[in-house]
Specification:
The protein is an alpha+beta fold. It has four helices and five strands, in the order βααβββαβα. Strands 1-2-3-4-5 form a five-stranded mixed beta sheet.
């Protein structure tokens, strides 16, 4: 396995993982997804098995203090092998931030395995 920065050749693999996770926003518009993964302040990395995308992490950052982990997913056949941790450990320094915030409803034990503080949070949706 290798972890590297996102390139457009990785897009189809990421979108396939999103579809597996039932995350429709990015697969709905691949051009928009590519724009998201390459936007200013965004760090996107992929885990590869050969040329197959087996995981990805997408973070947004101010480049100095704060980053937000927007999405992290690993292909179901590759889970529990340290890939999620490798993705985060590779991506976090690339953001330039001192800390990473995130919201999860499925992976509390995984994120709790990192040095962290737990806070109560909200996700606000525009009307």
């Amino acid at each position: 396995m290798t972890v590297t920065r996102y390139a457009e050749e990785h897009l189809a693999g990421i979108l396939a993982i999103c579809e597996t996770e039932d995350w429709p926003s990015l697969p709905a518009d691949p051009a928009r997804a590519h724009a998201v993964f390459t936007a200013p302040g965004v760090t996107t990395v992929v885990a590869l098995d050969g040329e197959q995308v087996i995981g990805f992490a997408y973070l947004q950052s101010d480049g100095h203090i704060q980053a937000h982990l927007s999405q992290l997913a690993v292909h179901p056949a590759y889970r529990r092998k340290g890939i999620g941790r490798a993705l985060l450990e590779h991506a976090t320094p690339l953001t330039g931030a001192q800390r990473v915030d995130l919201v999860t409803d499925t992976a509390e034990d995984f994120y709790a395995s990192f040095t962290h503080k737990t806070f109560h949070g909200f996700r606000i949706y525009p009307d």
